[in-house]
Amino acid sequence: MELYTCEECGKDSPNIKCNQCEGGDMKNNKDNQAVINQIMHVRRVEIEVVDIRRVVSDGSLKALADVMFGDSIIVKGFSVLMGKRGIFVAMPRKATKDGKWFDMIAPVNDEVKVEIETKIIEAYKDEVIK
To answer: For the CA atoms of the chain, what is the radius of gyration?
Structure first.
């Protein structure tokens, strides 16, 4: 995660535009990057698939999974899908009133995304073998 510092108010943020003073210019703060990386590593959260439900159909949806983050939050509705290039995981999604879809959650980086996907696909394969 990169950290930026607002040149107007001095607030640190992972956002490119400052939310504090409504759009102040942000400057990449390389000095604090090592500290942030250490904090993110120390605050590593255990990821566990707590439920996987196979879906028997001819469609691309193969299973739904619920994942626990740490011992605090369970996120429901991860989809295991069969695509042209094999099995993949989609984040929980919701439709808006106008029919557009958006992800309900988003991993903070590729490392977390790969960890979530790996755990869900492993749980799915274990369920299929049963």
So the answer is: 19
The pLDDT tens digits of the residues spanning 39-55 come to: 555 457 889 999 999 99
How far is the C-alpha of 66 from the C-alpha of 53, rounded, in Å? Answer: 9
Q: What span, in angstroms and rounded, lies between the C-alpha atoms of 57 and 103?
A: 23
Token reading at 84 = 């042209």
The tokens describing 20, both together, are: 């504090």
Q: Is the dihedral of CA 86, 124, 45, 76 positive or negative?
A: positive
Give the chain's domains with CATH numbers: 4-42 (no CATH), 47-129 (3.30.1120.40)
pLDDT above 50 (res 26) = no
